[in-house]
Specification:
Length: 145
């Protein structure tokens, strides 16, 4: 993906099964999906849900194989942020059947849109301030904290 080219509105920047585009993230998500999920949630919720909290809830639900009940909501929120289609399947189906692929796709989407999930919300806000941005890239102005 050429990051100098603006992303098309209303389209995912990568496919659901393009996990290997970022091999290290794919491996980390496969081994510990709760960590990457927690990072994604902190960004999607603009810092209102700390990464550790989301990580803990996901890990607890992982033990009883019900993570999709929690994670589906955040895929829906991410899609709303960037006006992305519910494709190739419903959010619940994607997280129920392809959880690792879904989490890695969501992580790539955030990265491709100018966010570094591993920095957390405050880390990204600091980065955007250093770059001179008044609001986070590609987040509507009412989303600044």
């Amino acid at each position: 993906m050429n990051l100098n080219t603006p992303l098309p509105e209303g389209e995912w920047s990568t496919g659901l099964f393009d996990c290997m585009q970022d091999r290290s993230n794919c491996l980390e998500t496969f081994c510990c999906p709760w960590i990457i999920f927690g990072q994604n949630v902190e960004i999607i919720d603009r810092g209102n849900t700390p990464s550790g909290t989301a990580c803990g809830i996901f890990a607890a639900l992982h033990m009883v194989h019900c993570t999709w009940l929690y994670s589906t909501n955040y895929r829906t929120k991410l899609r709303a942020l960037f006006k992305l289609p519910e494709a190739p399947y419903s959010d619940a189906m994607v997280h129920c059947c392809c959880c690792v692929c879904a989490i890695t796709q969501e992580y790539r989407e955030l990265k491709n849109r100018g966010v570094e999930p591993s920095l957390g919300w405050e880390g990204n806000v600091d980065k955007w301030k250093r770059e001179g941005a008044t609001v986070p890239p590609l987040f509507p102005s009412d989303m600044a904290r």
